[in-house]
Design a protein that fits this description.
The chain has one domain (3-142). Helix content is 76%, strand content 0%. It has 6 helices and no strands. The two termini are 13 Å apart.
């Protein structure tokens, strides 16, 4: 198995666990559980707001399933060129976190709306780790490719 496939498979498995968490235990503080947001528990006091929150959680989970299924298709049928460009696309899509989501979670974290405090930094490090993992895999692929291996 090539390095790009290995990294995609790791990402796929992690995302699968995140989807399971969102569907089965959305209030958890693990994975992508929204229990880290103090407002999640507060939303339960207003049924209309809580239904909206649940809808958005399931929408995120459904979007992640799209990525998972696409990755499965790429892993099974994709050429190495498809895997390279898919890895680059994943880097860009993952980096979109820093355009809107990170400023929001950082603001919430600073205001005490996240438990545990400092989680925004942990999340940023995890997101950058995914980007780094894909970038290293692409570099390793090209080094091997140009070395004839």
């Amino acid at each position: 198995m090539d390095v790009l496939s290995i990294v995609m498979l790791i990402f796929l498995v992690l995302e699968l666990f995140n989807v399971l968490m969102l569907y089965l235990a959305p209030g958890s503080r693990l994975g992508n559980g929204v229990g880290i947001f103090n407002a999640y528990e507060k939303s339960k006091k207003d049924p209309e707001v809580h239904e909206l929150v649940k809808y958005l959680i399931y929408w995120v989970a459904g979007t992640k399933i799209i990525f998972i299924v696409l990755l499965i298709g790429i892993l099974i049928t994709g050429t190495i060129t498809t895997k390279v460009f898919s890895s680059i696309a994943l880097i860009f899509s993952i980096l979109t976190f820093f355009s809107r989501l990170y400023p929001t979670i950082k603001k919430l974290d600073s205001a005490g709306g996240i438990t545990p405090r400092g989680y925004s930094k942990t999340l940023a490090i995890m997101i950058m780790s995914f980007v780094g993992m894909f970038a290293v895999a692409i570099i390793v692929y090209f080094v091997r490719f140009y070395d004839g291996g």
